Amino acid sequence: MTTPYQRGLRDRLLAAPVRPAPEPWRPVFGPYRKPEFPPCAAVGGLLGIGFATHPDTGHDLVLVVSSAGHGLFDAVTGERIARDRDPDADVSAADLTCPGLGPLAGRRVPIAGIDGGGLHAGTGDGWWVEVQVPRWPDEQVLLSNGGQFHNSPHEEGWWHIFHSRYSTFRAAGFSPSGRTLAVATSSDLTLWTRA
Predict the structure, then answer these.
(1) Residue 26 to residues 21, 29, 87, 112, 192: CA-CA distances in angstroms?
(2) What is the residue extent of each domain of the chain?
(3) Short-list 123, 91, 84, 83, CA closest to 109
(4) Distance (Å, rounded) from C-alpha 25 to C-alpha 32?
(5) How far apart are CA 74 and CA 111, in angstroms?
(6) What contacts 192, CB < 8 A, 6 or more positions away?
(7) What does the pLDDT read at residue 89?
């Protein structure tokens, strides 16, 4: 049984439209065509994602694990810099890591997604991401900087930046550097970056 307060919170979330992430965040995979659909990279059968740092450029990298193999994206440019359609079966369920590829070859990368794991929920300078489910099974991803959805107006401290109504939610969170925000679903990867 829900209380009137809980129903009010649910209604508040459901009434908040998807909006572009605020400055300084910018979408990695191109400009918004419609505010409710952030630009993304299609990745059919996406199972999980993990972050690492490029050893040469220092850019955040995103390792994507899918039913069709592994891919590695530069989180600043959006470029797919490595692809392995037939990776080794060395995916350790015990430590939730996968072998890296391309510039990450020889390293293991922690993965968050269908099998568990997690990404950073906050950054050192006050940005937070949280996932709410006011109407199951549709997850809403909220980005905040000093505000919270239960006590601040939408777009004044918190933003509804992603709504997974068409694909199954896998993971959302920041890179360890705090410069990249990722949302992964069973069909796509959405990234935002900042300087």
Answers:
(1) 7, 9, 32, 23, 5
(2) 16-193
(3) 91
(4) 13
(5) 16
(6) 21, 25, 26, 27, 28, 38, 161, 180, 181
(7) 59
Positions of the chain with pLDDT lower than 70, given as ranges: 89-93
Residue 152 half-sphere exposure toward CB, CA atoms < 13 A = 15
Q: Which two tokens stand for residue 166?
A: 């068409």
Q: For residue range 11-38, what is the model confidence (pLDDT) as tens digits?
A: 999 999 999 999 999 999 999 988 889 9
Q: Cβ(37)–Cβ(105) under 8 Å?
A: no
C-alpha count within 13 angstroms, C-beta hemisphere, residue 21:
28
Query: Do 46 and 184 meet the contact criterion of CB atoms below 8 Å apart?
Result: yes
What b/e string do you get for 105-116 counting C-beta neighbours within 10 Å, with b at 16 or more? eeebbbbbbbee
What's the Cα-to-Cα distance from 45 to each of 35, 89, 93, rounded to whole Å?
25, 17, 18
- The pLDDT value recorded for residue 25 is 98
C-alpha dist (Å) from residue 33 to 27, 96, 100: 11, 35, 33
Using CA atoms, how far apart are residues 90 and 128, in angstroms rounded to an integer? 33
